[in-house]
Amino acid sequence: MSNKGALALLAEYEGDSSEDEVPGTRASTKRLHKDDDEEPRNKRFERLPVPNFTINKLEEVVDDPGLHEGRLRSFPHERGNWATYVYIPYEANEGLQRLISRIADLSQVENIELKFFDSFHLSLTRTVVLRHHLIEPFVNTIRENISHFNKFIVMFDSLEVYTNEEKTRTFLGLQIKTGYDSLVKLIQCLDHCLGEFKLQKFYENPSFHISIAWCLGDATEKFKSIIGDLNHELEQLMNEFSQENWYIYVEEVFCRTGNKLFRFQLL
């Protein structure tokens, strides 16, 4: 593991290119200028009229929960701030799709208005905020620190109910059974990276899971009456569908920051 710190990486930063960045996410700019060598010399020094302009104050960005299904931001939106998190992707399969269908049926019994995710992942960090000029050194720090990690397997066990820290949303997640120790070591490494940039570390004693569905508010009491039935359905589906539906072979880790996506291969 390299001992090069975040400050050294920042000194080496020369742009926002990365060989590991997923293509198609970077915009290009072209610098334009006017060659005035052919203008008459006397015109170059003519006094130009002072332009009439006013300086407009930047408008405050007001969060409107109605634009994103009632969800509230964990931190205010600010220009130049990039929401960033590290995760393991999980591709939906037939077993998971059948589980989602069973969950939708049972949640209606308790009048829980669930919304289902259309993509799935296992979080390895909280969502933190990076300034744009820190993206490249942060990504390089992660790459160096996890370069020695080997591939491993994560298997799922049961469904569990979670809430966010503000108790404004409730989540139904697929909890892992095996791979916990490998995930903890990976989290410790990523926490070290976050610490170099003075960013908030991951939760203590984490319960690793993939969120499947969510609803507004704290609905833990409602879920108590059906969580047993939900796990019974999951057990039946695990017997019905092959084991490949219920595990992840972790070969790579991703970091998303704003519209940029970075990939880190494991050994």
What does this structure look like?
About 25% of the residues lie in helices and about 25% in strands. The chain is globular and about 50 Å long. It has seven helices and ten strands. The longest helix is centred in the last third of the chain and has 17 residues, at about 180-195. The chain has helices at about 5-10, 40-45, 95-105, 135-145, 180-195, 220-225, 225-240, and strands at about 80-90, 115, 120-125, 130, 150-165, 170-180, 210-215, 245-250, 250-255, 260-265. The protein has a domain at about 80-265: Cyclic phosphodiesterase (Cyclic Phosphodiesterase, Chain: A, Alpha-Beta Complex). It has about 270 residues and is an alpha+beta fold.
In total, the number of strands is 10
H-E string: HHEHEEEHEEHEHHEEE
Structural class based on helices, strands and sheet pairing = alpha+beta
- End-to-end C-alpha gap: 14 Å
Report the average pLDDT across residues: 81
CATH homology group of the domain at 81-265: Cyclic phosphodiesterase
Give the low-confidence spans: 1-19, 23-46, 50-65
CATH architecture of the domain at 81-265: Alpha-Beta Complex
> Helix count, per DSSP?
7
- Could you name the CATH class of the domain at 81-265? Alpha Beta
Give the fraction of residues assigned to helices.
25-40%
CATH topology assignment of the domain at 81-265? Cyclic Phosphodiesterase, Chain: A
Percent of residues in β-strands: 15-25%
Assembly type of the chains comes to single chain
Biggest sheet character: 5 strands, antiparallel
Coarse shape: globular
Radius of gyration: 24 Å
Relevant terms:
single chain; alpha+beta; 5-stranded antiparallel β-sheet; 27% helix; 10 strands; Cyclic Phosphodiesterase, Chain: A; 7 helices; 267 residues
